């Protein structure tokens, strides 16, 4: 479905992509990871046809730069920084569904599987949503645009590709066992009260007890990596953490 063949990209004298070759098949859900400057964003921009480059990039056999209308009509893309749309959430959902000639309730359903209940925010301007809510809504819309077989989208990722200095340094497939509908019960014990941690964890709707030293809540399965990434910033503060999968 997606092919990179010896893709090279230079910005002046700096080589940002250095001979990237990858085949990504239908149904693969890839986590592209790497430090800042590894080349991830440049690779995605080449995939979207935004940059010229040496080598070949194709999506279903088409060059995304030479066949932009045909290719981009099948791609759902969520930017790192959400656009500052003042459109109400309900109007955005209706507009997106109309583009795909489908029922807006399909977006409602996908968002719910991602842990976002849109019914309570339909009249709220998109720009006034939290960062996490914006990303979940955009992902729900992107999934609808890019796939008509959403029942088969059951796990977060099943392949991890790591980049460094413009090269692929790791390409590994992982266990396919994290369902979008799964939730995890989480309990965190901290060594001392820290206002910054309390603010961060409260944003995940966690409740505190025992003088704000024990925090308990539930997270959606697809959010586990993002949640653990947030918790890792307070690793010196955390005394104990438990995650229990709940598929009920």
Describe this structure in words.
There is one protein chain. With 248 residues, the chain is an alpha+beta fold. The chain folds into three domains: 2-78 and 156-173, Rossmann fold; 89-151, no CATH class; 183-246, Alpha-Beta Plaits, CATH 3.30.70. It contains seven helices and ten strands. It has helices at residues 40-47, 68-72, 89-99, 104-113, 131-146, 195-202, 224-232, and strands spanning 2-11, 14-24, 30-33, 54-59, 159-164, 167-173, 183-190, 207-209, 214-220, 238-246. The protein has a four-stranded antiparallel beta sheet, with helices on one face. The protein has a three-stranded antiparallel beta sheet with strand order 2-1-4, with helices on one face. β1 (2-11) and β2 form a beta hairpin. α3 (89-99) packs across α4 and α4 packs across α5 (131-146). The chain is globular, with a radius of gyration of 20 Å. The chain starts with a strand and ends with a strand. Mean pLDDT is 84; it is low at 148-155.
How do you describe this structure in short?
The chain is built from seven helices and ten strands. It has about 250 residues and is α+β, with helices and mostly antiparallel strands. It starts with a strand and ends with a strand.
Task: Record keyword descriptors for this entry.
248 residues; 27% helix; globular; 10 strands; single chain; 4-stranded antiparallel beta sheet; alpha+beta; Alpha-Beta Plaits
């Amino acid at each position: 479905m997606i092919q990179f063949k010896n893709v090279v990209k230079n910005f002046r004298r700096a080589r940002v992509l250095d001979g990237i070759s990858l085949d990504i098949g239908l149904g693969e859900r890839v986590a592209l990871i790497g430090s800042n400057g590894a080349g991830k964003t440049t690779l995605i921009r080449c995939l979207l046809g935004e940059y010229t480059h040496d080598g070949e990039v194709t999506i279903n056999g088409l060059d995304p730069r030479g066949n932009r209308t045909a290719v981009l009509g099948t791609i759902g893309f969520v930017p790192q920084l959400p656009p500052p749309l003042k459109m109400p959430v309900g109007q955005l959902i209706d507009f997106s569904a109309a583009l795909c000639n489908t029922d807006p309730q399909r977006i409602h359903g996908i968002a719910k599987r991602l842990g976002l209940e849109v019914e309570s925010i339909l009249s709220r301007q998109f720009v006034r949503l939290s960062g996490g809510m914006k990303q979940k809504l955009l992902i729900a819309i992107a999934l609808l645009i890019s796939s008509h077989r959403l029942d088969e989208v059951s796990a977060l990722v099943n392949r991890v590709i790591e980049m460094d200095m413009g090269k692929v340094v790791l390409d590994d497939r992982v266990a396919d066992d994290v369902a979008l509908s799964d939730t995890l019960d989480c309990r965190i014990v901290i060594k001392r009260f820290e206002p910054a941690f309390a603010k961060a964890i409260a944003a995940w709707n966690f409740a505190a007890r025992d003088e704000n030293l024990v925090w308990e809540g539930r997270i959606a399965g697809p959010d586990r990596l993002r949640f653990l990434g947030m918790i890792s910033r307070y690793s010196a503060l955390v005394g104990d953490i438990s995650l229990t999968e709940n598929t009920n």
